[in-house]
Write a structure and sequence with these properties.
The chain is an alpha/beta fold. The chain has a domain at about 275-360 and about 450-530: Rossmann fold. The protein has helices spanning about 60-65, 90-95, 115-125, 135-150, 165-175, 185-190, 205-220, 230-235, 260-270, 325-330, 355-360, 370, 380-385, 400-415, 430-445, 460-475, 485-495, 515-520; strands at about 5-10, 15, 20-30, 35-45, 50, 80, 85, 100-105, 190-195, 225, 240-245, 250-255, 290-295, 305-310, 310-315, 340-345, 345, 360-365, 450, 480-485, 495-500, 505-510. Helix 16 (about 460-475) links the parallel strand 19 (about 450) and strand 20 (about 480-485). Helix 3 packs across helix 4 and helix 3 packs parallel to helix 5.
Length: about 525
């Protein structure tokens, strides 16, 4: 670690890393809840700190205060960057000028532009005046240098749409670290970069690339705040951790030799039981519900399986195996090019998700923000949007009182936090948004629930709760088709697992044989330790 990142006593000896960001006694209240309560924490220069907490713990609110999106409560204390105390509420321009950078899951990249142009959007195009020409060659050279310094092997001239998902994330991180001259240098060492679930949507073989980049930023003196629900990542790359629970700091410590189980207990507040939520041994599945024979699509070829009543059937395989294509075809979001589907013995070939729902098949898509919810509507409106008939009178008037009562009951069943049906869906954490989507489809009482990556970006406690919801649905006679890239999820929740590889079926593993070893033997070893 460089001398610039160490605190120095009067005698000149180093006493450890200097604070890059200090947060003291910050609180934030909304009309229906207190999101943060007297929060204090420190992030050290030249270190990676994992910011942990269950969905709804206050992480997003804290980040929004630092970015200038929210203002803290008037009685709040102070926020100090380096040695400068920032005026509250923080203006977005002040956050940026003091080196605070935020990389969200959507990465804020423009797919149709080059990597260099995306850098320029954040840092300026380098023209002397508004009418001066853009110096493309200079811009390319600056961005190439910035990428090279961090070991990101992507061409500055490449279109963002043409590079891999992991490369996109690394471009977004490198852009946050670079200064206006396209290089890290001393300016980069003053960066405080918040990474919000940077690997949530990446395959396991790409996660290590992001980890190496984070390590290089730390070694260059940058400060990284790593927000994640993947506790193996905390053990792998974090130097320190801070835990938020119910809006308060409950732990701030070195990671050291802490295990995933110990960290999980800090996050949840109790020992976490990772139950296997499968059918009881000896319990037989019911009659066939969905029969698939010789199903084909753009990627899929000759897929054949049956889902029984009361069963959770998993679909596993590497990226590009056809998992999502299979779920879309069954849910009516994509047409098959061949094969036969039968639902309860009758031919089933839905032309749209609406038709699938009429036949009793509901779909929870992997892109909850883009396809599963309406962010600008309230939680209540999202949950009841699919069917308002129970609340509609003969003259078309809607009883919001009855509607709200039903949604409040579902909030309790699905353990949504905060318990605020009139709050905008955009203001809920990702895990609680996912619970809202599951609540929406549970109201429709489907026979088959098709879920694609149901716990992506969800905390460890939330994963168990969602798994319990799916198990309860199956135990009550429904069926679940669960597509996932999370091996732990597959081994915990599924009764059988369909293995796909490059669009072809490699086999179906029975409940008693679902282990990491058996999945590895069928060619899904890249899912291990996701």
């Amino acid at each position: 670690m460089s001398a610039e990142t160490d605190r120095v006593e009067r005698g000149g000896s180093r006493i450890g890393p200097a604070p890059a960001l200090e947060i003291a006694s910050i609180s934030k209240s909304f009309p229906e809840t207190r999101a943060l309560s007297d929060v204090s924490m420190t992030f050290l220069r030249g270190s990676v700190t994992a910011l942990l907490g269950q969905n709804g713990s206050g992480k997003s609110t804290l980040v929004k205060i630092l970015a200038g999106f929210h203002g803290p409560d008037p009685e709040s204390g102070r926020i100090v960057v380096g040695e400068e105390t920032l005026a509250l509420p923080i203006a977005p321009s002040a956050a940026h000028s003091h080196g605070l950078r935020f990389v969200h899951q959507d990465m804020a990249l423009v797919d149709e532009l080059t990597v260099a142009d995306n850098f320029a959007f954040a840092q300026g195009f380098g023209a002397a005046t508004a009418l001066s020409p853009i110096r493309d060659r200079r811009l390319l050279a600056q961005v190439e240098r910035s990428l090279a310094e961090l070991g990101v092997q992507v061409s500055a001239a490449a279109r963002v749409a043409d590079i891999a998902p992991a490369e996109r994330m690394m471009v977004a991180i490198a852009r946050a670290f670079a200064d206006s001259e396209g290089t890290g240098g001393s300016a980069g060492s003053n960066r405080i970069i918040f990474l919000d679930e940077p690997t949530a949507f990446l395959p396991s073989d790409s996660v290590e690339q992001v980890h190496r980049l984070v390590g290089r930023i730390r070694d260059a003196g940058g400060t990284v705040v790593y927000i994640t629900h993947r506790l193996d990542e905390v053990v792998e790359i974090a130097d320190r951790l801070v835990v938020l629970r119910d809006g308060a700091v409950t732990a701030e410590r070195e990671v050291g030799s802490a295990t995933e189980a110990e960290i999980a207990e800090l996050v949840v507040g109790a020992a976490v039981r990772r139950e296997r939520l499968r059918r009881q041994e000896g319990q037989l599945a019911g009659e066939p519900l969905l029969e698939v024979d010789a199903l084909s699509g753009p990627r899929l070829r000759g897929i054949k399986f049956t889902i029984h009543r009361g069963e959770v059937l998993g679909v596993a395989g590497l990226v590009g195996c056809g998992r999502s294509e299979l779920t879309r075809i069954i849910a009516g979001a994509q047409r098959a090019s061949g094969g036969i589907l039968r639902l309860d013995g009758a031919e089933y070939s839905p032309s749209s998700p609406r038709e699938a729902i009429r036949r009793g098949v509901a779909f929870v898509p992997p892109d909850r923000r883009g396809q599963g919810l309406v962010a600008e509507m309230t939680f209540r409106e999202n949950v009841t949007l699919g069917d308002l008939s129970p609340y509609t009178s003969t003259v078309g008037a809607i009883s919001t009182r009855k509607e709200k009562g039903d949604v409040e009951r579902l909030i309790e069943v699905f353990r949504v936090s905060p318990k605020a049906p009139e709050r905008m869906m955009a203001e809920f954490s990702g895990g609680n948004q996912q619970k809202g989507i599951l609540a929406k489809f549970s109201r429709l009482k489907p026979r088959l629930l098709v879920v694609d990556e149901p716990t992506q970006g969800v905390d460890i406690g939330g994963k168990q709760e969602i798994g319990a919801v799916l198990r309860r649905f199956a135990d009550e006679g429904g069926s679940v088709l669960l597509a996932s890239s999370d091996l732990d999820e597959v081994t915990q929740f599924c009764d059988r697992v369909l293995i796909l590889d490059r669009g072809e079926q490699r086999g179906i593993i029975d409940a008693g044989e679902i282990t990491e070893q058996s999945l590895t033997a069928h060619g899904v070893e890249a899912l291990i330790d996701v």
